[in-house]
Specification:
With 246 residues, this protein is of the alpha/beta class. It has 8 helices and 6 strands.
């Protein structure tokens, strides 16, 4: 990263804690996992379910699985996901979802569910992505996105860059946001610059920031092919304080 010798704090974002997505560490799911266990991958509880799946890596060979049961379970799951959200039956009504799965089948089921989740986000959030502005719980956070280099096969790196200011009039913080957009250049990655939702001195470490950042990263994954294993925070002045606080 190139910069003009300005104070900078930069550290990896804790993707496993804050992002509703699968990471490379969670790719190989344990034998014996069932489709029903994976069926919790919804927008509301995706993070909790993925953490459970990752913890399942420590287990192996708990329950035997066979190819026929794998194929039947995956086929039934695919059939369910092919239906629109309003037409889908309850998972409890599906016969095959309690079938133990092999590691390969569990990965396939997770991929299907994750792909379905991405499709839901794209359908529900297209307007906010096009507007480059998020509004949650009464707080609005505009943002800009710039591409640097070529997109890697595993997805873009993400650098969320927080501007300085705080405890100042809106016009001052707006100028700080504009400065931040041209402050750094990358060799590769998405350079993402959010505008703090408030103008308070602690604008980057209020309760709504984690929620908005989680939403922002999910949108970057859904619409821009971001790699959730390579999400970083950086900031200048008050933004550097935000890196430490978040």
């Amino acid at each position: 990263m190139q910069h003009a010798n300005l104070p900078l704090l930069c550290r990896p974002y804790r993707a496993c804690d804050y992002i509703g997505s699968r990471t490379q560490d969670g790719a190989a799911l344990c034998p014996g996992l069932t489709c029903r266990a994976l069926s919790g991958l919804t927008a509301s509880n995706l993070k909790r379910t993925i953490l459970i799946l990752i913890s399942c890596l420590a287990m192996s060979g708990v329950v035997a699985a066979d190819d026929r049961s794998d194929r039947a379970a995956i086929a039934e799951l695919q059939s369910l996901l092919d239906k629109s959200a309003g037409e889908r039956p309850e998972f409890d009504s599906l016969v095959q979802l309690d079938t133990p799965l092999s590691s390969a089948a569990a990965n396939a089921a997770a991929d299907l569910l994750w792909g379905d989740q991405l499709e839901q986000w794209r359908a529900e959030r297209e307007a906010e992505w096009n507007d480059k502005s998020l509004t949650l719980n009464g707080h609005t956070m505009p943002f800009t996105v710039r591409e640097f280099g070529e997109q890697p096969e595993e997805g873009w790196s993400v650098y969320i860059s927080m501007h300085g200011g705080g405890g100042a009039p809106k016009e001052v913080n707006d100028q700080q946001w504009q400065n931040q957009q041209i402050l750094y250049q990358l060799q590769e990655g998405l350079y993402v610059v959010p505008r703090a939702p408030t103008d308070m001195w602690n604008m980057w470490h209020q309760d709504h920031i984690d929620v908005l950042f989680e939403r922002l990263i999910q949108d970057l994954v859904a619409f821009h092919g971001a790699n959730t294993d390579r999400v970083y925070l950086l900031g200048y002045s008050a933004g550097g304080d935000g890196v430490y606080q978040v």
